[in-house]
């Protein structure tokens, strides 16, 4: 089956300029560097990674809000990587976004009705019964009172605003929603409401999701497949179970072991404490980008970029980019690299 | 403002807790009315332990800690109750008294190190300044001390980095600088307000471990303010769960996370997905939204969002405010009987 969205060798560099008076390009931020991801129809793909790993840029590339430097974005087999505004017009309604911050993503001067109606008007869609009826339906779908049609965003709480943003994304019956950290700005008790809502919509309407988040537990809960990113590259991708139960990449191990869990179980978890922070994407390390923080790094890691392949012992569709993969378990030995903790 | 009610035996320090907050009230007057940000909060911190204060935004956790440090503007904030730190009462203490304590015996670690550090001064100077003020050290001594502290919090090459400015450091390293600054005078109490919220998970884990390590070495008490029960589980000894300006549950980490008793704590625990939980069942969120503190709900402040009003009986929850009971140990502010709580919680956890 043809995937709904396919990203092939997708790369995005942002220029860095320097110099006084005469600005020159002095380098590139390697935000996304050769990423391959497929999203099938009705599938939920999670994208995790730390800040600065390029996951938001990837989301925007997939929505074609950015134009890729290299590589391809294929939507239903059609190459839209450098398509013009006009060529994109019929595709735009099918790909919608939900943003992180429900405070800055809604126009404070517009009523809820206007906000949700906007996409329909722009795309010249006249639903049966008129725009207002459709907006009221949408408000009900996302769990808001249809009576709130004429209210302004400031009258709503963060969770409710996020629902308005979701209603806006649904207005055009999209096939794919790119959700960029949709719950991370919300309080814990409200997060669950929004996650449940998204999951219901996904099931009822069969919308595919590219779900971008840094919270590994939320991604695990929401996504069928998960891709782990580090410094612009996908280091591991696979179905949910493979990534969370049988991770192979040392970085995935480190991420999973760092998640603070609200349990008091006596069963000890693997404890991995990396040293330092993520290196700068302006000058990423040669070879494997994780090698500067990796405890298994050897000379080969600096010389050769590890390909994203199905390493020995991986299941079908579980790809890892590592020369020296870890054992497929989450109960390995402790690794403490931080000098202050040693 | 409610006056301080003096009990027969008189207030003051009890047992070996060296910070004791009794019946704290903090309210702010605003254009729309009075906001009761903290309303009758009592807790204690024992020496060398970490108390995690958990709650959502607006629950009063940061306000409480600013009150301990005397950082509220008294023109706008009314503060009642008592805060005993060792032998001193901090509510209404003079400015000079507070100034002698702040940075010296009580220190604070803020959430966002980039805004908490001055961009114009080198980190060495910022760390040294505190030391010079409180210990009367010379510039050279302060600089040596700054290097020692930077080294201790795991900043490589401290002798060189001491002359760098905050923007030369990455997020995690900046938070280490903040920690170094907080600990420079060997304080007996450190208040950490969401110290890891702005950080990535791998760095968060480093910082939490570091705090723990330093606590073991120096015997500092820590108040750790967070919205993340996972952070509490990893880094605290005791927990206080706050909701809308009041404490709803208190106990050791094992007690509160292992056998929670308050419906709000259940809500917090069951609404966040875990790495090991089943993915096929929907999350169980707390319905509704947190209340406005201008007009807090009558009775138990959680009752409009609570699912167990019926089990308690008619109207009790909406008319009378439950108190945290029992006085010591694992306590909660809820009218359900202990047996009901245990049954409901067991049932809740079965589906996970």
UniProtKB/TrEMBL annotation, chain B:
Keyword Transport included in the entry's annotation: yes
Domain annotation ABC transporter: ranges: 19-269
Gene Ontology MF term list: ATP binding
Subcellular location, record wording: Cell membrane
Top-level taxon of the source organism: Bacteria
CDD domains given in the database record: ABC_NikE_OppD_transporters
Membrane-related topology note: Peripheral membrane protein
Record Pfam families: ABC_tran, oligo_HPY
Keyword ATP-binding set for record: yes
InterPro entries: AAA+_ATPase, ABC_Ni/Peptide_Import, ABC_transporter-like_ATP-bd, ABC_transporter-like_CS, Oligopep_ABC_C, P-loop_NTPase
Keywords: ATP-binding, Cell membrane, Membrane, Nucleotide-binding, Transport
Similarity remark: Belongs to the ABC transporter superfamily.
Protein name (database record): ABC transporter ATP-binding protein
